[in-house]
Amino acid sequence: RIQILFERMSSGPWQNTLKRLFSLSKPTTIPQKSAYNRSFSAPSQTTAEVSHPGTTDLKKRVLIVGLGNYPAPRSRHSIGQYLLHHLARQNNTELVNKRFCKSHIGSFNYHDCEVFLLKPKRFMNENGKCVHKAIQHLHIPPSHVLLLHDELDLPLGKFKLKNGGSANGHNGVIDVQDRLRYNDIKRIRIGIGRPEDKNDVTDWVLADFTKSERHLITVMQDALSDLVYRSINIIVTPPDDKVELKKKARKVKKEDNSEGNSNKNVSNPEVS
Prior knowledge:
Elements: H1 2-11, H2 15-25, H3 35-39, E1 61-66, H4 79-90, E2 96-98, E3 103-110, E4 113-120, H5 127-138, E5 145-151, E6 159-163, H6 171-180, E7 186-191, H7 201-206, H8 211-236, H9 239-271
Parallel strand pairs: 1-4, 1-5, 5-7
Antiparallel strand pairs: 2-3, 3-4, 6-7
């Protein structure tokens, strides 16, 4: 009886109703965006490609951050971002706006390393927010972060690599250390000198470079870039390899000393 009833309904005026019911019962598939598109939502402007996490060896990833005061790009406080732009030009990469970390990001390959450049779009004392978001997304450990920032205690034209330690009152470095909960961040301190009046420090760091100072920065930017590349090698070198390199250096030094002593012993009898 049920079969007869079903045949009558499927051939009669109920036919369209049954079709609609069966079509609604089918599961609908919604196309999903890839993980790349979900995490890197592209802004309206043209953007460059940024590598997706997992495409390279994560141990060979380095994040270089140009600390600065984004609203004042030509100020002494933003000299780290000036150098970041120079690195981008050297490696033919574009710094592109990325909303997930409110920064401009670029990337390039250096030997077997993948290097990311980060330019925060915040005030100096909030740069750490951008750095924290970036390392979370790119899966980069704090030990593989290199900061470029201004340094009052070094004269203009001088720069040094520092492995962690005190931020020396630098608000940008302090914010990065606090948000990453890591105080051993490697950083390159770029000298901007101190003003004659110690009370004018705030105005000094927020002021633009003079014409002669900009010329000096242009002259030294290649040497600064060389220090950045050497720092990348230091960061990605495994601790065991560093120990081995130190042992080899000591061994070579001892051999040099022993050769020098043996030469003295041989020559002494002849002199005497």
